């Protein structure tokens, strides 16, 4: 017990002074504060006044017995665990005590006081786990309420955004449209009337091919098919084509389209806008020379010649890149802001697209004059002269760094969540978390360092990438940057970490000179650090993403630890339950004077037979429990009937036939034994319907009961009884075969005989 905590108070209620004082001396030696009472009435008063942490109560006492005490104590102290002390052969009282919520029971005399200590420790630990689980459930409910409120706010903003989009689409000059995957229109903005001469209602009854000539639609269909065939979804495509007006005229248009996918990346629709190119084509030369209009554009605009050399840039280009007009002129645009994060194949594809007269649209990472990186959305449009030759390219650039970083954060959360979904244990989660960091943040190294709360020492629990060799590395208490991050509770970011002398093992900096780390917190308490390392500079964006992943990792690991602890506790509880059941079975055999080991033998053989007839592993545990407790109802049968050597009278048989009902009444109130109830309740039913207590027939009798009834009869016939000697194996087998289709299920009889024959039992005596 922890000496810094107040002692645990144990209330001992026992009318026998010797036992009472023996328990008290033992518990005081173990550091408990002992409260005593001579009977249940005094125990209630002590419970109210002293508020003990656990109670030991004898079941049979004067004035107020243990069961009466438990009934009165429940509303006073519902969460205080109670261990009952029972004399031998008082199973019915123990069952009632368990129904009232007892944590455990001990049988008098308690010769080994260590059993008392073990029972008390187990009950206190179980009570503590229950309290922790309630607190966790409360915290979870509060979190759900907060998340629900945030979701409602987000839905309101989404509705407002959709309304703005609808107003924009209905009043836009471009033709805004949406088609399904059968190419039928499902939305058309008002501007379609001016572009094609059709009303929106007319368009909604048409197919996309109806606004093209057959030849032109073939080209468009090819473009869409190519886009759909790509391995990964793209943001959109832009191409030029010709629409056919209602009066038959062909109208040049520019179409920007985007394929919409469902959650499984299956295409469900195409939406986009169509721009009338008629006036632009007619005035293209004039517009190209009117640079004044372009000077005021919010987006960066660059005009290059046929080879890609810059001829003109607007002020927005200077603001975006840091390059002024004079230092940009005559330089190749691709080389001026190139970040080297896109390979040559990327630029070759871009150049091939535009030199073929096609518009290129996409996203890429470029570098400003000061060396900082940014993400831009770029559209390159070829400019043709009257002969159709390309003379210039107009490039429009928009800084979408903030948008992309936000999207990446959302995608990171989704990716890590999806990856963790298949991991349940800590050992499964750690490599998933670190591998996601390597991939999503494009870094070379990642590791997780955890603190030993007791010693203050830290250890690298797992390293991945170039830091894989750091796995298992111990860091003395207070040393290294991990200790500093834990101590301060603040993130760490250093793009020149080689100069930081606080690193305990500089080997981590051999490849990765840029280092970032954030504390792993559950609540406000940090117990570890999540690190990434890169040969390239890291930004605040990387730190934000790392923080998001660290929060998810900390909570996931905490839940895994809690789940593992709960599983271990549940396993111990199940083992305790099974030990209790086996104890009950031994007591029943002693009272019923059956051959020693009968319950255990029929349980083992029943499980073998159940497996052979197809009862699954999950149900086998209930078969075993039901077999061990099959005659528990005989507790309610008087000894004079149970031990009678002669024939029973009709009234005595009626009393004997009531024991399955007694079993049902007692066991049905114990939740964990309900799945095993069929065998104790119905093992005297017969295949032909002549059994008791309910007269079930054929397959109305539960499958496991049909298995057990054969094994029970087989073992009983081959055992000595007060009223007869044991039968031989041969005679018992002949009886089983004779009762096939009468007492027993014929299919189960066949399976049983196969087991017996395979073991050679039928040939033995």
Report on this model:
The chain is α+β, with helices and mostly antiparallel strands and 765 residues long. 47% of the residues lie in helices and 19% in strands. The strands form 4 sheets. It has a 6-stranded antiparallel β-sheet with strand order 18-17-16-21-20-19, with helices on both faces. A hairpin with a 5-residue loop joins strand 8 and strand 9 (250-261). Helix 16 packs parallel to helix 19, helix 20 runs antiparallel to helix 21 (617-628) and helix 20 (598-612) crosses helix 26. The chain is elongated. The model has no long low-confidence stretch (mean pLDDT 82).
Question: Which helices and strands appear, and what pairs or packs with what?
Answer:
Layout: E1 9-13, H1 17-29, E2 33-37, H2 40-50, E3 54-58, H3 66-76, E4 82-86, H4 91-99, E5 104-107, H5 113-171, E6 175-180, E7 185-188, H6 192-196, H7 200-203, H8 214-229, E8 237-244, E9 250-261, E10 267-276, H9 278-282, H10 284-289, H11 291-295, E11 300-305, E12 310-313, H12 315-321, H13 325-328, H14 333-336, H15 344-355, E13 360-367, E14 373-384, E15 390-399, H16 401-421, H17 426-440, E16 445-451, E17 458-465, E18 474-475, H18 480-488, E19 492-494, E20 514-522, E21 525-534, H19 540-592, H20 598-612, H21 617-628, H22 639-642, H23 650-656, H24 659-667, H25 678-682, H26 703-717, H27 729-738, H28 746-758
Parallel strand pairs: 1-2, 1-3, 3-4, 4-5
Antiparallel strand pairs: 6-7, 6-10, 8-9, 9-10, 11-12, 11-15, 13-14, 14-15, 16-17, 16-21, 17-18, 19-20, 20-21
Helix pairs in contact: 2-3, 16-17, 16-19, 17-19, 20-21, 20-26
